[in-house]
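Treating backbone geometry as a discrete language has practical consequences that deserve illustration. No coordinates are needed to read the tokens, only the vocabulary itself. For completeness, the protein is quoted in full, as a sequence line and a line of structure tokens:
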Amino acid sequence: TYAPKLILLDISDINCIQDVAKEILTCYGCVDILINNASMKVKGAVQSISLELDKKIMDANYFGPITLTKAILPNMISRRTGHIVLINSIQGKIGIPFRAAYAASKHAAVGFFDCLRAEMEEFDISVSTVSPTFICSYHRQPAPGNWEASIWK
């Protein structure tokens, strides 16, 4: 058994994910199960959400999990074993008003991991997507004009 090791990762910071994955693989040698369970969302009308915020949501909910998965995947492929799990959202299947950026990022993630599932079958690597319905998340009330504070994490 291994002692737990805390490794901090901002999943929306794509540039640091490779280094974190390398640190994990150096420390433990392999990853048997990768659970992608990080998310950001914002509530608002399409016309009131900036493109900058749309991109931040996409980085956290789509590019973050696929970047981490791609960093760990070669190790799993070389060992011909592993399980990758995406904790997603029902909004990856059904969009609802005032959640366009969130739903779009979750739709994209479902598409990627569905394709990955088919591709990894030959390597005996399992890929699962879990899409729960609505859950209670941590939320900070935004100050007027402060879109950063309106993000659900």
